[in-house]
Write a structure and sequence with these properties.
By secondary structure, this protein is an alpha+beta fold. It has five helices and 14 strands. It comes from Nitratidesulfovibrio liaohensis. Keywords: Signal.
Length: about 290
């Protein structure tokens, strides 16, 4: 490669009620879109329509955020860092709902390509075939670029990927938005003017995020682009995330299995390096 508690019955009822409210908001947003007059894509969206879709999106994301807890996601990862170097691996991602997160990348049964641990400030990746570990602490990590520098072509950190896969978009994108514009099928695209991840976020008519790009409207695509497909859960969660870059990088994450296990131990969330491992600093772009 060049990751005060309610009793059970009351808690269950509360969760069902919250999810029903989210579904209602998604339905209202879709209805608002359907009743809106047909206009050409790219024109400003009516304020009421733009607010309804954004409110539905925020409620969906906040519900997923409130449901945070131990999880494990098994996904296939196809990625390319150049014109001809396609790779297909298995990605296993787990945490207790927040940092630290662990990500193992495997090329086959028993063949581990990389073991990665990331928290708020530190990125550590061990490559068994090299007997080397790559370490970074600071701005590169906080900017979400350590994983990219390690060789995985995504503009996000491991925690960002976990939040995206679990529908916790509010942890990745800022809640400020401007310049809401209509897109072809009744969706709305919003400009994200601030925060760590800026650009343009497009919502479906139901208020689900389905497209992000770091290129602003009316500008030529020159950077990162992400498209999101959903499963059939209620409410839905991302099933497939496709990330591309104008220079030819790409990554496709396809969720195979989701689990909600018991809380992981500190040892299970740690990353112990074998004796004799060479530890090197991870510098931007050094392993792409």
């Amino acid at each position: 490669m060049h990751l005060l508690r309610l009793p059970h019955d009351r808690s269950l009822a509360h969760g069902i009620a919250v999810r029903c409210c989210v579904l209602l908001l998604l339905a209202v947003a879709a209805l608002a879109q359907g009743c809106a007059p047909r206009v050409a894509p790219g024109v400003p969206a009516p304020a009421e329509q733009a607010d309804a879709a954004w409110h539905a999106y925020c409620s969906w994301a906040q519900t997923n955020d409130a449901d945070a807890g131990p999880f494990r996601v098994n996904a296939s990862l196809r990625y390319k860092t150049g014109e001809h170097d396609g790779n297909r691996v298995v990605a296993l991602l787990w945490s207790n709902g927040d940092v630290p997160l662990r990500l193992d990348i495997m090329a086959g049964i028993g063949a581990t390509v990389a073991r990665i641990r990331e928290d708020d400030t530190t990125f550590l990746a061990y490559a068994p075939n090299e007997n080397r570990a790559y370490y970074h602490s600071g701005d590169l990590n906080q900017g979400g670029r350590a994983l990219l520098s390690f060789g995985v072509p995504v503009p996000f950190s491991v925690p960002d990927l976990a939040n995206l896969l679990n529908g916790r978009f509010a942890r990745v994108f800022d809640d400020a938005r401007t310049d809401a514009r209509l897109v072809a099928d009744g969706g709305i695209a919003y400009t994200l003017p601030r925060g760590r991840v800026r650009g343009m976020l497009e919502l479906s008519p139901e208020g689900l995020p389905r497209h992000w790009t770091d290129t602003l409207p009316d500008e030529k695509q020159a950077g990162w682009d992400m498209r999101i497909d959903y499963d059939e859960a209620v409410p839905p969660l991302p099933r497939k995330i496709t990330i591309t870059h104008a220079k030819g990088y790409s990554a496709i994450l396809l969720v195979k299995e989701r689990e909600r296990p018991q809380a992981f131990t500190g040892e299970q969330l740690g990353l112990e390096l074998p004796e004799g491992t060479e530890v090197l600093p991870l510098r931007e772009g050094t392993r792409r």
